[in-house]
C-alpha cells in the first residue's frame, strides 16, 4: 500500500518536472461546465445567441460555391417559407454573413496586434457590436418578412435551441 | 490492487480539471474557453443535411515572460452522415482571436438505408493541443417502414397520417410508430402515392389539390428509443381539384 502511494507521488513529481524543464506540453480535452446546454435548458438561451448561431450556420460565406449555397438553403427550405419571404431571408443572410465576417476580421486584427505587443485586448466592445448586429438582422427580418414568415423563422430558431450549447460568459 | 487500477484514473482527473498549460522553463498559460456550439440535422424527405458550428473565443492568461506569439488556435468540427464526412479544420488564428467555423454535410439517402449521424467540435492550441471539446453526439436517420391514413381518426376526430420508422435490417431492435399532425383540412380522401409505397391524404383547398404524405426518413437517438424531430410530412400542391 505504502509502496503504491510512493509510486503515485513519484509519478506526480516526474510529471511536474517534465512540464517545467523539458519543454514538453500537456493537453487535456475539457468539456467546460460554464455552458448552457440547450437540450436540457433551452429557455435559458438568449434569443440573440440562438439567432447568432443559427444565422452564422446557415448564412453562406461570400465565396460560397453553388453547392455550399444549396446545402445551406436546405435549412431554410425546412422552415417552409413562401417565395417572397424565402428571397428576403436569403438577401438578409448574405448581408449578415459579410458584416459578421468583417466584424470578426477587424477584431482579430487588433487581437493579433495586441498579442504581438504583449498587451491585453478587451473583447467586451466586440461582443456588444456582435450582439447589436444580430439584433439589427432580427429587426430587418421583422420588417421585410410577412408576419407568418417571421413567425415560422422564429419558431424554427426557438426549436433549434435544443441543439445549441452556449457559453455562459455570453450572458449579460 | 484497487489502488493500482485507480492510479491512472486519479492522474487523468487532475489533468481534466485544469485548463492550465505549461510550456518549458517558466512559461505557463491558463486558457478559459467561451465557445458556443450548434449542431443540427434537417431531413427533406430523402435529403439529409447536417451542420456543425463552433463560435466563440478563449481568454488567455499567460504568466509574465511567457511569449504566446508563436501559438495559434484552430477550430475543428466533426460532421459525419453515414460514411460521408469526418473532422474538418478552420483557419488557425491568434490565441485570443474570435472564431467562427461551420461545416455542412449533405447526402441523398438511399431507400431503406439507415444512416448514423455524428457531430463534435474542438478548439485546438498549437502548443497545448485540444482545450475545448463540445462533446460527441450521435443519432440515426431511420427509414419509413409502413404508413396508414385515416379520413377521420377516432381519437382526434380529424384526418390523420400514421407511420412506423425504423431499421429494416434490425426490425426487432429499432422500430417506432408515431401519429401525424391534426391540422390537415377535412373532407379529403386517403390514397396510396404513385409508386404505392405510402398511404397519403389528398384534399382540395381553394381550387388546388393538396397531398400530404409521410416523409421517408426521420431522426432518432442512437438507441432508437426516441424521435428527435417532428412527424415528417411532405406536402405537394397541384392546381385543380383532386381526382
Structure write-up:
The complex is a heterodimer of chains A (about 170) and B (about 240). Chain A has about 170 residues and is mainly alpha-helical. Chain A has helices at about 1-20, 45-60, 65-75, 85-115, 125-145, 145-160; strands at about 35, 165. Chain A has a two-stranded antiparallel ribbon. Mean pLDDT of chain A is about 80; it is low at about 1-30. Chain B is mostly beta strands and about 240 residues long. Helix content of chain B is about 5%, strand content about 55%. Chain B has one helix at about 1-15; strands at about 20, 30-45, 45-60, 75-80, 85-90, 100-110, 115-125, 130-135, 135-155, 160-165, 175-180, 190, 200-205, 210-215, 215-220, 235-240. In chain B, strands 4, 5, 7, 8, 9, 10, 11 and 15 form an eight-stranded antiparallel β-sheet that branches. The longest helix of chain B has 15 residues, at about 1-15. The N and C termini of chain B lie far apart (about 75 Å). At the A-B interface, helix 1, helix 2, helix 3, helix 4 and strand 2 of A face helix 1, strand 2, strand 3, strand 6 and strand 8 of B. Strand 2 of chain A pairs antiparallel with strand 2 of chain B.
Amino acid at each position: 500500500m505504502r509502496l503504491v502511494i510512493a509510486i503515485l507521488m513519484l509519478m506526480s513529481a516526474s510529471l511536474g518536472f517534465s512540464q517545467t524543464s523539458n519543454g514538453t506540453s500537456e493537453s487535456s480535452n475539457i468539456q467546460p461546465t460554464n455552458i448552457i446546454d440547450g437540450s436540457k435548458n433551452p429557455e435559458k438561451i438568449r434569443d440573440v445567441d440562438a439567432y447568432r448561431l443559427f444565422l452564422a450556420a446557415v448564412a453562406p460565406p461570400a465565396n460560397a460555391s453553388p453547392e455550399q449555397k444549396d446545402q445551406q438553403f436546405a435549412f431554410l427550405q425546412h422552415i417552409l417559407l413562401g417565395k417572397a419571404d424565402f428571397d428576403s431571408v436569403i438577401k438578409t443572410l448574405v448581408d449578415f454573413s459579410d458584416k459578421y465576417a468583417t466584424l470578426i476580421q477587424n477584431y482579430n486584427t487588433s487581437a493579433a496586434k495586441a498579442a504581438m505587443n504583449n498587451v491585453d485586448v478587451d473583447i467586451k466592445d466586440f461582443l456588444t457590436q456582435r450582439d447589436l448586429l444580430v439584433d439589427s438582422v432580427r429587426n430587418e427580418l421583422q420588417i421585410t418578412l410577412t408576419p407568418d414568415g417571421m413567425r415560422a423563422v422564429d419558431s424554427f430558431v426557438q426549436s433549434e435551441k435544443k441543439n445549441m450549447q452556449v457559453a455562459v460568459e455570453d450572458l449579460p | 490492487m484497487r489502488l493500482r487500477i485507480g492510479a491512472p484514473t486519479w492522474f487523468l482527473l487532475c489533468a481534466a480539471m485544469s485548463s492550465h498549460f505549461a510550456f518549458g522553463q517558466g512559461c505557463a498559460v491558463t486558457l478559459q474557453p467561451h465557445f458556443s456550439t450548434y449542431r443540427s440535422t434537417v431531413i427533406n424527405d430523402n435529403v439529409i443535411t447536417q451542420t456543425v458550428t463552433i463560435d466563440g473565443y478563449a481568454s488567455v492568461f499567460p504568466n509574465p515572460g511567457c511569449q504566446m506569439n508563436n501559438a495559434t488556435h484552430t477550430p475543428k468540427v466533426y460532421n459525419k452522415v453515414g460514411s460521408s464526412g469526418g473532422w474538418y479544420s478552420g483557419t488557425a488564428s491568434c490565441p485570443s482571436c474570435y472564431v467562427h467555423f461551420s461545416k455542412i454535410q449533405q447526402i441523398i439517402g438511399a431507400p431503406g438505408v439507415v444512416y448514423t449521424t455524428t457531430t463534435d467540435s474542438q478548439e485546438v492550441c498549437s502548443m497545448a493541443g485540444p482545450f475545448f471539446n463540445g462533446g460527441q453526439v450521435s443519432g440515426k436517420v431511420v427509414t419509413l417502414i409502413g404508413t396508414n391514413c385515416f379520413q377521420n381518426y377516432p381519437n382526434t376526430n380529424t384526418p390523420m397520417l400514421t407511420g412506423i420508422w425504423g431499421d429494416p435490417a434490425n426490425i426487432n431492435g429499432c422500430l417506432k410508430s408515431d401519429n401525424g399532425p391534426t391540422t390537415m383540412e377535412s373532407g379529403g380522401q386517403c390514397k396510396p402515392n404513385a409508386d404505392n409505397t405510402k398511404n397519403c391524404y389528398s384534399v382540395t383547398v381553394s381550387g388546388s389539390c393538396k397531398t400530404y404524405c409521410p416523409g421517408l426518413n426521420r431522426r432518432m437517438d442512437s438507441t432508437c428509443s426516441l424521435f428527435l424531430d417532428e412527424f415528417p410530412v411532405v406536402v405537394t400542391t397541384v392546381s385543380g381539384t383532386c381526382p
